[in-house]
Every structure is written in C-alpha cells, then in structure tokens.
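Hi C.,

You asked whether I'd gotten around to modeling the 166-residue construct. I have! Everything is below, sequence then structure, no commentary in between.
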Amino acid sequence: MARFTVNSSRFDPYLGYKFKIMIEGQYVAALNKCSALKRTTEVTPWYEAGDPSAPRQIPGKTKYDPITLEAGVTHDTTFEQWANKVNNFQGEAAMSLAGFRKDISIEVYNPAGQKVLAYLVYRCWVSEYQALPQLDAGGNAVMITSIKLENEGWQRDTAVPEPKET
C-alpha cells in the first residue's frame, strides 16, 4: 500500500518542524512548539451473567488532553488577551466569559511550504498561562511564553489535500 496517494513514490513521512497555529483567522506570532494531539478512551469492563470467566471490554468516556503552545516573547498579546478572558487580575468585573472559548487550527507544512495537514480543535480555553520564563542575567536563552489549552475534541481537516510535489 502506498503511504501517499498523490505522490506514490514518496517514502518518508512528514517532518514536524514546519507548522502554524491559527486563532480567530490570525496566525500566532513567534510560535515554536505545540504539544501532541492526544485522546484517550476509557475501557469499561462488562460482565455477563453466566460467563464470569472474563469481562468484555467496551469503550467508555473519551478525554482529550490539553494542548500547550509555546512562543517567543514579542509584543503580540494574543496569548495574554485570551488568558485574561478566563482570569483577570482586576477581578470578576473585568473578566469576560463571552468568547473565552475559541476554535483553533493546527496546520502542518512540508519543506516546500505547502500545507499538508490540518487539524481543527474545538472549544479551547486557557487553563494555564505563563507570561515570562525564569529570567537569568547569566543566561543566553530566548524568552518563551506559553498557554495550556483545554479542548472538547479535534478532527482532521479533510479539505486539505495532499499537495503535488515538484
């Protein structure tokens, strides 16, 4: 079986270093890391009367793991504004639970810059926000900000076709 339908002679899988995250129609600036998309379905044992030897295994509840996004610190306030919708230091009067959930798109690109995969992640909200990393006067590292996104599920965007390689 061919690994790719359009480029049947292609052997290598896609690389995981060219990607973009879109939130409300705009790409996140200076993004450098996105955690894995993972879901887990619980196993529910089911015992039938008259057959006590072993339980049947049936699917139970499904849980979608949080997604962590990391970006270099810039003047882009996308993460901060979104986190402030859930919790704001000014108190409840300054918070806005209207629009605190957002759908995002995770897009993967090949080395030629063509979009090869996309996943749509639904009803995300910020459960953890890190504005600045630990600061170290003796260090030589890029400052990273991060958000942890709770979500209610995701699916592959099947409208993204396999690109024709040149």
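If it helps when you're writing up: The mean pLDDT is 89.

Thanks,
B.
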